[in-house]
Amino acid sequence: MKKIAIVAAGGRVANKVISEAVNRGFDVTAFGRKDENHTQAQTYIKKDIFDLTKEDLAGFDAVVDAFGAWTEETLPQHSTTLAHLCDIVSGTQVRLLIVGGAGSLYVNPEHTMTLSETPDFPNAFQPLANAMAKALGELRQRNDVQWTYISPAADFQADGKRTKLYLRGGEELKLNDRGESIISYADYAIAMVDEIEIGNHRQERISIVRA
């Protein structure tokens, strides 16, 4: 049985990943800031991400970083929290899987333009996309960590259906046969747990879109 830790477990994506993993029989520990466990994780530990130590994450097969921040003051924490987690698992075989963003996906084969740089990208999401792209760039420099960065499709739907059908891409924005870039949180969670269970995309960014 694989042992998985979910960090920043209070968010909706985290809850989907936890539910998917538990339903598959994984041993899941959730770390969050709430007083009580509002997830399906078998174990819950109240602890801020910056307070986590090497001892906290030792013995897990994989750690899922579901951290999210949206305000101007907290956006830099995409970089600082990820750096902290990398330091904790540095030099170990513990996999670190990051719930990423779509804005940094490339939209051309030359990899000279990202989705966030296209004219139709919403201005409201630009600061978040920039912060997450910066964190990804810093992550790429970490050769001491078994990381996998998983970007969702451009249209990341919290209440979308669980279809169990998805396509896996790489660094470029991937469209399905209908020309869509869309994925539900539920299907994203399936892809995340699949990567933990059978995937081996170490020190790579992959992307997920509904089939």
Automatic annotation (TrEMBL):
<feature type="domain" description="NAD(P)-binding">
    <location>
        <begin position="9"/>
        <end position="193"/>
    </location>
</feature>
<dbReference type="GO" id="GO:0016646">
    <property type="term" value="F:oxidoreductase activity, acting on the CH-NH group of donors, NAD or NADP as acceptor"/>
</dbReference>
<dbReference type="InterPro" id="IPR051606">
    <property type="entry name" value="Polyketide_Oxido-like"/>
</dbReference>
<dbReference type="InterPro" id="IPR036291">
    <property type="entry name" value="NAD(P)-bd_dom_sf"/>
</dbReference>
<protein>
    <submittedName>
        <fullName>NAD(P)-dependent oxidoreductase</fullName>
    </submittedName>
</protein>
<dbReference type="InterPro" id="IPR016040">
    <property type="entry name" value="NAD(P)-bd_dom"/>
</dbReference>
<dbReference type="Pfam" id="PF13460">
    <property type="entry name" value="NAD_binding_10"/>
</dbReference>
